[in-house]
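Support case: 9MR complex. Customer-provided input:
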Amino acid sequence: MLGAVAAAGLLAGVLTAPAFAAGAADGPELITNGDFSSGTTGWWWTENTPGKIVDGRLCADVPAGTENPWDAIVGQNDLPLAAGEGYELSFTASATAPITVRTNVQMATEPWTTEHASADRIDTEAKTFTHVFTAKADHEAAQLAFQIGGGDQAYTFCVDDVSLTGGAEPPVYEPDTGSPVRVNQVGYLAQGPKSGTFVTDSTSALTWTLKNADGAVKATGTTTPKGVDPTSRQNVHTFDFSGFTEAGEGYTVTVDGQTSEPFGIGDDLYASLRSDALAYFYHNRSGIEIDADLVGEEYARPAGHVGVAPNQGDTEVPCQPGVCDYTLDVSGGWYDAGDHGKYVVNGGISVAQVMATYERTLTTEDTGGEKLGDGKLRVPERGNGVPDILDEARWQMDFMMSMMVPEGEPLAGMAHHKIHDKAWTGLPLLPHQDPQPRELHPPSTAATLNVAASAAQCARLFEEYDADFAERCLDAAETAWAAAKAHPDVLADPNDGTGGGAYSDDDVRDEFYWAAAELFVTTGKDTYRQAVLGSPLHGDADAVFPRGGMSWGATAGLGALSLATVPNQLTASQLQAVRAMVTEAADGYAADSRAAAYGVPYAPQDNHYVWGSNSQVLNNMVVLGTAHDLTGEAKYRDAVLRGLDYLLGRNPLNQSYVTGYGERDSRNQHHRFWANQLDPDLPNPAPGSVAGGPNVDIQDPVAQDKLKGCAPAMCYIDHIESWATNEITINWNAPLAWVASYVDDLGQGGDEGPGGEEPGTPTCEVTYSSNRWNSGFSTNVTVRNTGAQTVSPWELTWSFADDQKITQAWSAQVTQTGRNVVAKPAPWNTTIPAGGSVNFGFNGTSSGQAANPAAVSLNGKACAVK
Ligand code: 9MR
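Agent response - structure generated as follows:
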């Protein structure tokens, strides 16, 4: 039977080929990652036939003695086919022993109806095969299956350049991009640059108008036509209103009858972003209950992975089979991202940048160190005499050091690359409900150097607060360094990506440079000086600061930034050389920003926006901000601010990528707990969570479905299952925290009051308006901050004089106890900027005509009630 279907498929292909082959080849590409440039993404195989990438091809080891061709399969699902359409399938394959491979395009479930089947003789020399066929039926999600079983002997099958083209172009997904006038939806610093972008077909200059909240025209000018922007493939103009400096809320820019989202101008626009971006780390702590008193009911949750069923760890975690015969207590630390993995590579850059956010306030004038100090952030350790930001960093540092191989074991002193679930889990899933076994993966040189670098930085920062802990960090750093020197090329397996990310890195020269730099800054020892100065990267700005930005796999820049800013024992000329690398890199990023139609300081080769591109933008902003700290030159500061404009809405999608900031913010990022899109009882991501952002490789199915053919800076969708464009992770929020802190300092001069955490002393006005009937009411509340300070988070309280009962609320979390009511922000409106306002409302019941409350307080202070 199978044979007959196969023959029919082949026949159809042969007979109809000449008529439609060209059309089929012209149709859209249906195979994802057919050249395996994104690893094994999109491909699956039967359990007996493990696949991996070898020299850029997918190779699968087929065991001896399988009976049928379909007993061993490599395949890809989710291929849409349309009845009557022509298709062309091609691939290049080889096998270590000759074999006839059956290639089917078929239904992915019973009755496995075959649309195409071919039998090709595959030999040791790679050969390209091409087949054409016409689909007989419509399939939403057909399957390509290379059936490679049925051979007597074991062999390896390798395939590359798999392509299936044909059918009609799928309907093009049109993102809702709102107004073509693109601005920073939060706002512009009064003394900073203020520019925006206008999408238009017009090629000649147009008039722009800046209006205030009342609609009064405050400034006008003309746009600058910029032609077609390659990152969006849109024809655009830019406009600039930097000369206008009057603080206020609710400004808009209008061009050609189109009006932007509203935005603010002022100096205190970013205080809450600083503390929200840092709160991300507490929210994502493993091994500790997340306390409602610190984050609100909605975000509270039980401790994850503390050895309480159904969790299986992380207090006694074994290695993967064959890797080690001990267990480690690796509880604590931060969950990496939407998944529950904890990775030393990636954990390192994240904790280093959190510590650098603090360290900058020690080494740079006019910075807001007190805003990161004790009692200022959302950490349970507040009040212990240690700056809160260091408490947060310590949570991760303890975990990092716990990942080291114990003394007496082989590879002692190295660090395990990662610990995560044995298999991938689905969404949603709260950390404490994760039933998967947890496993330690083999040690790696990169992980070991992540520990060496971050622990060296830890040692110098904790010296003042906890000398014992500082010594423990230093000891771990030096032990790790020695272990890495002894085992300099133990690389993590790029195919080790089941149940967690691979985070593999085949070049650790940058990790050596970073670790040597941090150890040298902390100890001044000659060994580390030599390691820095002798590194092939030293002095090479392009290698230390890649054009596409620093990342978890490119960490040399972290070391260079510490050498450039933290007092150390380099000679004056050596120091100058390091600083020159920083400014040279910053000059490049600033030039990229000036040239970009959307002002973004990120110009990767061929506009290849990578997975987590927003963090690449942010890392370039960190380098720019440091260059500004070092030189005071405005060109660097301006490029940071334009980068912030890009992230907060001045971009091709009109998207603010930071939850809770801007009118059109990302709020469905990929996260197992913050999964409101899948379960309305769960929260959206907490304010201050930055999405990964545009990624031209669109590796996940949602992105592949919607975004095929997308322009580089538009390869993004705010959907929870788009993990390749819309995840959130510690190494992306860490540079956001650094940048938010830097920008808040710019606005504030660093010596203002508390950083958005303390209740503050608001001056406020509440408009309380109700529609009433005999047994009920519907109320809208507007809370306006009439003071000079941002209020974040806000809390509004009042008492009813009668028996009215709130039954349902929107845009705020409203709780009523007896007559007392407390309203707290929704995730997207935690902040009320100076001069700004938030709205929320509720419905309720009452047993007669109910009255407005006479007195309402904002964060404990009485407001005027209208
Ligand atoms: O941020 C990582 C990105 O640079 C890689 O290209 C990608 C694929 O390997 O993995 C990203 O990291 C993910 C990790 O593997 C698993 N946890 C979530 C991370 C963010 O998406």
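The two ends are 80 Å apart (CA to CA).

Case will auto-close in a few days if no follow-up is received.
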